[in-house]
Structure formats: structure tokens, C-alpha cells
Amino acid sequence: MHPGVAAVSTTPSPGPTAVPATSAVPLPAREPDAATLAQAAERAAGELLAPSAPHRLADVVPTPQRVHSDPTEDWTLPAEAVIVASADPAALAVAEQLAQLLRPATGYPLPVTDATAPAPAGGIALMLDDTTDLGAEGYRLDVTTNGVRVTASTAAGLFYGAQTLRQLLPAAIESPAPVTERWALPGGTITDAPRFPYRGAMLDVARHFFAVEDVLRVVDHLARYKLNHLHLHLTDDQGWRIAVDSWPKLAEVGGTTEVGGGPGGHYTKADYARIVAYAAARHITVVPEIDLPGHTNAALVAYPELAPDKTAPPPYTGTEVGFSYVDPADERTYDFVTDVLGEVAALTPGPWLHIGGDEAFKVKGKVYTGFVERAQRIVAGLGKTVVGWHQLAPAAHLDGRVLQWWGTNGEDPGTLDAVRRGARLIVSPGNHAYLDMKYAPDTPIGHDWAGLIDVRQAYDWDPGTHVAGVPTEAVLGVEAPLWTESVTSLADIELLLLPRLPAIAELGWSPRETHDWAGFRHRLAAQGPRWTTAGITFHRAPEIPWPTTPTIPTQRTAPHTDPATPDPR
Questions:
Q1: What are the φ and ψ backbone dihedral angles of 69, each rounded to 5 degrees?
Q2: Alpha-carbon torsion 40, 144, 138, 538, what sign?
């Protein structure tokens, strides 16, 4: 343990019964039982397998802010390790999540306990300390021969420290079944905090619908790389994906189509609440998007009264854009907007409501800005902050307004003017951050209207200076959208997300001065065996030096003790 920190009483490990310090008469020594001898033998074998930790302390994605390595302090996770957390429900929740991540591969019980002042005591300690200067999401990770300590001022910081700890363990830690491995961590200290407060990805569930379980899997990918926002594109011409009690046909009728004529689908309020809660437990905020006034064909099919000619259009299963819009001259339209946004806001604890606003080609000039300004006021009246694509820029500014910029050339006088009036930016350049773009001409799915985006193209740009004239302090963060016109399965999603998502994550998290393509490609390559072990689909980008002969861990026929707690991933 660290000097000056008292040990914490934890669950005792199997082995000889300790002699109480107050005992006046020595008790006879007790022979170790077979289980204890077996555990000791396995630990000894593990030490022979690898004399030092297999990774460097800096070999993580996103790259940490500061790293101080100390090879003399390498640590190996023992079978009897305990995870000790601050006596706070949020800290204990992170401790249990970490235990659930580590139990399947190790087969160790890893009990979780609390303490007023957690100390490693040979295991892992997660300590909340509001006197640190680590910020709202920062953490400090200390690895010594006496154990591992993660310190943060918030549970989010503890969670991110736990993700770093996870990456520093051997790739076999991703195995869903117990394996034989020496679970070693490199010694030293990491001090880390994000560059931008908003780091996200978008999943379009409107063009093709994806089940709740698929969305939860995407949440796990975001959490792994310290992304903290999931933007869900819930409505478009091809489908309406969220139930609205006051307008039930939106989901019942508008949700029955998708690109290519598939069955579509929608989320019940319980489904959506499940996604929101699962994300929140991983310190990810859901940003729901109801796209207005365009991209609304599915809504018009369900409610023709919203159409300019009051006639229901045919259901749409193609991929063209810009042809549909709700009637901006009819008060019934604003009843619709108020009701829908109100119900979605009530289901969404996060601060953001995304109202789209892009490609409404048939709503122009003052009619368009008038609609947007009224919609913005509706959002503010619900106690939320409005987010919209950068086409919202000409509308009057509203306090807190955020524009999501998806241009391709970095020059945008309209967006710059909106920033000068007080808007902040989420930066999502189509030719760097759009994950539905193909990697190369032969990529089997995806688009190329913004160009081909290989991993280097996704990595080599700066969100803080990308839009000409916009100061870094006006940039809220970065987001990687994934549109799904050609994406029909979870495997398709993962193929386009990985390995580019970690590149965007590093841009959002790591200090600009650490940006280094040569170093990143090697750190990214080390993620490949982790994804393979976890059964995650990814694109083996040729510019990344993936290991050619990944080590396949030997699965044990039985765990050390009781079966591990099921992994929620």
C-alpha cells in the first residue's frame, strides 16, 4: 500500500487462519488446504510465464495526458484480490462494473467492498476525493507492487480510470470464459483528463432499425474509449423510431418501414428508458434527435394533417433527401412539435434535445428561420438545450445553442457568424468523422460522397481549429456520426465503427500535443486482439500493423472458484 495510508479490512483470502495479534498463546500452524496450494502453484506458474508486464503504461487509447512509468512497480492481480471503493453508491457501482469486466476471463471472485478511505491492500482501490484538481472527468491511476489505486473527484473519473486499467491488462481479459494468463499491469502513474467535454458518436436508427441489444453493444464500444455521448437519430423519411403517446400513429404507422423495404420497428418508452439507463450507468448521455422540419416523410404518412397539402405521401424506403417537410404555416404543426419534444424530453435526463434542421430544401429563408426559432423556444421551455445541424446557423441565437457542423472544407461564414453570436460547436466533418464513409473503394458497405476515410484520415485533423475562424474555446467537442442507409446489422455497424471510432475518441480526449500518427497506429494495433477475443467485428485496415499471429489464450476447463458473474457486455 502507499505510505501513510492505512490498510482496509477486506474479505480474507483462502488460506491459513491468521493468529490474532492479541493472542497470548501461539496456535499450532494449520496446513494449507488443496485449493490454497493450487492457487499458489498457479500464481507461481504465472510469474514464470511472463517476468514483467506485457504492456507499457502509455499503451492505451485514447493516449493519457501524463504518464510516469516505473517498471520496478509492476503488479499482478492475485486470485484473492478484493476491489475496495469509497463508501458512495456511485463509486461502488463503478467497482462492481469493473469486477464484472474482470471476472469472466480471470475466473476470480473479485468481491467488492466499501471503505471510508480505500487502500489497495494488494488488490484494487477506487477512491473518490473531491479535493483533487482532476476535474469532472479526470482520474489518477497508480500501479505499485502493493496494488492499484484509481483516484477521481467523480464517479465518471473512476469509470474512465477503470477503462484504462482494463486496457493495461493482457488482451485475454476480454475472454468470456476463464483463461490461463498472468494478469499483470505495468507499474507507474497515469494522470489523465479529457480535452473536450463532449465526445460522442451518432447512430442512425431511422434508415434501418436496430434492436435495443444492438444499441447497448454500441454503448459498450463508446464506453471502452471514454466517449460520453450517444446521439440517436430517431426519425427520418424512412421510419419513426420512438413511441409518442399523444401521437401514437407515429410509431405504429411511421415505424413500419425502413430503407429497402424491411420491417422497420420502433422503441417503446420502456425500450428507450432502458437504453438511457444503460448508457447513464456507463457515464454516457443520450442525445435524442427528432429531425425537423424536413426528413419527416414517415410522420406525414402517419398524420397527413402535418403535410403542406394535407395528403398522406406514400411510405418511403429509398435514400434520397430533401423532399419532405411539415407545414410551417399550420399551428397544428407546432402542437405536434411541442407534444413530441415534450415526451422525448421527459424520457431523457440529459440536457440536450437535437432538432435536426438539415436538408429542408423546400422550407427556405424566413419561413425556415421562423420555424427553427419557434422550435428552439419550445426546447428551451422544456428546460433543455437545443442542438441542431449547422443549417440552423441563420436563425436567431438562443442561450446555450449548439450547432453540429458536418461540412467538408472547413470554411463556413454562416456557422462562424453563429459562433460570434454565442453558439458553440460540435465538430463532425463529413470527410473525417462520418463513419458511414467507405475506408477504400472496395469497402462492401458505406458511401463516398465526402471521400474515402481510412484510419489516418479519421485521425489526422484537429477539432479545435478545424472550422476556420472558430476559436477552440467555442468548440464543445467532437462526434462521429454513423448513417445507416447501407448498414443492416450489428456486424455492419462494428465494421464501420472500428477501428475509426478510437481515432475520433483520441481527438476528443487527448491533449493536442500528444497527437502522433506513428504512435497511435501501434497503440491501435494492440486493440485488434482484444476485439478478436471479445468477438467484435472490425476492419483490418492495411495502414495499421495488426499482430499477424495473435496469442490465443488457453481456456481453463473450470474457473478458480464459483462461476464468474455474467459479463453484461
A1: -85, 145
A2: negative
The single residue of 42, 96, 343, 359 carrying the catalytic annotation is: 359
Q: Which residue from 484, 456, 424 is spatially nearest to 543, judged by alpha carbons?
A: 456
3-state secondary structure of 355: strand
Q: Report how far residue 78's alpha carbon sits from residue 111's, in angstroms, rounded to the nearest whole number.
A: 12
Q: Shortest CA distance to 153 belongs to which of 137, 169, 168?
A: 137
The Cα–Cα gap between 404 and 475 comes to 10
pLDDT in tens, 369-394: 999 999 999 999 999 999 999 999 99
Helices (H) and strands (E) in the chain, counts: 15, 21
Q: Mind listing the pLDDT tens digit for each residue in 77-133?
A: 999 999 999 999 999 999 999 999 999 999 999 999 999 999 999 999 999 999 999
Looking at residues 431-455, what average pLDDT do you find?
98
Cβ pair 128, 140 in contact under 8 A? no
- Rounded distance between C-alpha atoms, residue 84 and residue 270, angstroms: 34
What is the CA angle 306-396-383, rounded to 5? 70
Global pTM value: 0.89
Q: By the 8 A CB rule, do 126 and 84 touch?
A: yes
Active site residue 359: yes
Nearest to 382 by CA among 343, 355, 356: 343
| Averaged pLDDT, 515-533 | 98
CB 243 within 8 A of CB 251: yes
- The single residue listed with the C-alpha cell 483528463 is 193
> What's the rounded Cα separation, in Å, for the pair 53 and 37?
24
End-to-end CA distance of the chain: 32
